[in-house]
Write a structure and sequence with these properties.
alpha/beta; 6-stranded parallel sheet; 23 helices; 10 strands; about 55% helix; binds iron/sulfur cluster
């Protein structure tokens, strides 16, 4: 799968997403539920804005001193007896993991949820390895694996697009499950499958929420306990992390854990907050062979640029949960494993404008994402910055936005032309009036609605009401003119 999840053109993905009413309802419900939980959990902390400032400061400080903290972390891992590998690309990360598995003669690999492993397309590589079996152990990821490695649609709730009956059908077909669609029974079925596998596993692969520079440990925030089993049962652990996911000490991790759990799932803390590293001789558990793969894969493109702040992201998913565009098109519409406002900014940074140039336009620029981001990333400004780079520097064309907006821009910048257009808007748009007005009251008030506008107006009328503008003699400009003339006479 990798960073790019679909080769379909963006317009086609959008058209498919628009038809998926189940997905839209599921996303809307999740967004609404999360809103209540998230706001409650944030209020508990006291001055949320102060916490955001501290979170922003920590992330900015780390990015300003990234080489220093990466080196310190790497030294500390080595001091405990572990290994750090810096991977420039997804292929380098894959190769390293493969080398470790071959060296260990691994047969069974357990994975706990990690966006970075999806970004580097690890699963297909593992599946191609002869004699190696792999199992995703996060429940949502397990469901996707059972459904022939279906694509995740949210960074925190990857199978948000499936309902319990769909999951029951998948389990019945792939696991021989005969029970009902009660989530408790479905979870029990998944757990039984996983437990058998866990006990045999020789290598565990996890992501990492934060890597702690001064101890060489990693911090994982999870709710299901599968990450803890992934770390503690297999003798070998491989961690894959983006190079920006580092904090100076456990104190900063504590602040970010607070921000993350509240923003991601509306909890004070996740059920399991785990710190792990290479097992020392005096310790009773933990991996005996500990490897950390630190991935660049395009992240350094953002360092020192106006896009650096996107690397502050702690992957809470809160920006997805407030985004009106994500609400309508869901995760798959973006065609990137990082959807929503985060993905619309990050994907072009990692994969370039050629692959992801449409995404910065998949936004209403309402700035709800910026408002909710716990580490104060100015997401809507970064979306505008991407558009600016594409139009001003790269001169890239993006259909509607470039051509039609230029025509609109030129028309509205010539006062006489604009005034003339306003004289005829009522007449012109009346021709497209809806045959069955939505209500009598609206009919009188606005003169009816337009059913399906032409060209770029269609994008609006497909999903919103567009009233026919009032006659020229009744519109605001005309009223204002008369009003002003009256005042001057007094
Ligand atoms: S950009 Fe901000 S709100 Fe969005 S996932 Fe990252 S940290 Fe969370």
């Amino acid at each position: 799968m990798g960073l790019k999840t679909s080769n379909q053109p963006f317009a086609q993905r959008l058209a498919e997403s628009k038809q998926d009413i189940f997905m839209q309802k599921a996303v809307a419900k999740a967004q609404d539920d999360q809103w209540v939980k998230r706001e409650g959990a944030r209020a508990e902390l006291g001055d949320w804005q102060e916490w955001r400032k501290i979170g922003e400061h920590i992330r900015q400080h780390v990015l300003e001193h990234l080489p220093h903290y990466l080196e310190e972390f790497s030294d500390q891992v080595a001091k405990r007896g572990g290994h750090v590998y810096f991977a420039q690309t997804a292929e380098e990360a894959q190769d390293y993991v493969k080398r470790v598995l071959v060296e260990k003669n691994a047969k069974q690999v357990v994975k706990s949820k990690s966006m970075v492993t999806t970004e580097v397309d690890l699963d297909p590589m593992l599946l191609k390895m002869k004699d190696v079996q792999v199992m995703e152990t996060d429940l949502a990821e397990f469901i996707l694996q059972m459904d022939d490695w279906d694509e995740p649609s949210h960074i925190v709730f990857p199978s948000i697009h499936k309902n319990r009956e769909q999951i029951r059908q998948v389990f019945a077909e792939k696991l021989g499950y005969t029970g009902n669609n009660d989530p408790v029974n479905l979870a029990r079925c998944a757990r039984e499958e996983m437990r058998k596998f866990f006990l045999q596993a020789d290598v565990g692969i996890t992501g990492c929420n934060f890597a702690i520079a001064d101890t060489g440990m990693i911090n994982l925030d999870t709710n299901e306990g599968n990450a803890d089993l992934t770390i503690s049962i297999p003798k070998t652990q491989i961690v894959l992390m983006g190079m920006e996911r580092i904090v100076p000490t456990i104190k900063e991790a504590e602040v970010l854990d607070n921000l993350l759990a509240r923003s991601a799932v509306g909890q004070s803390l996740t059920t399991y907050v785990t710190f792990a590293g290479q097992k020392k001789a005096v310790e009773s558990d933990g991996p005996e062979d500990f490897h950390v793969v630190i991935l660049d894969n395009g992240r350094s493109n953002a360092l020192g640029t106006e896009f650096q702040s996107i690397l502050q992201c702690i992957r809470c998913g809160s920006c997805l949960n407030v985004c009106p565009v994500y609400r309508h098109i869901g995760g798959h519409g973006y065609g990137s494993i990082y959807p929503g406002p985060l993905g619309a900014v990050l994907s072009p940074v990692l994969g370039g404008y050629k692959q992801f140039g449409e995404l910065p336009y998949a936004s209403s620029l309402c700035a709800a994402c910026t408002e909710t981001c716990p580490v104060k990333i100015p997401l809507h400004e970064l979306l505008i910055a991407h558009r600016k780079v594409m139009t001003d520097e790269l001169k890239l064309q993006h259909g509607f936005n470039d051509l039609q907006m230029r025509v609109v821009g030129q028309g509205t910048s010539i006062p006489a032309l604009f005034k003339t257009a306003l004289q005829f808007d009522h007449l012109g748009l009346s021709l497209l009036r809806h045959k069955h007005p939505i209500s009598v009251e609206n009919m009188f008030q606005y003169g009816g609605f337009i059913k399906a506008g032409p060209g770029m107006v269609k994008g609006w009328t497909d999903v919103r009401d567009l009233p026919v503008p009032p006659k020229h003699s009744e519109n605001f400009r005309s009223w204002y003119k008369k009003h002003q003339a009256g005042e001057e006479h007094e």
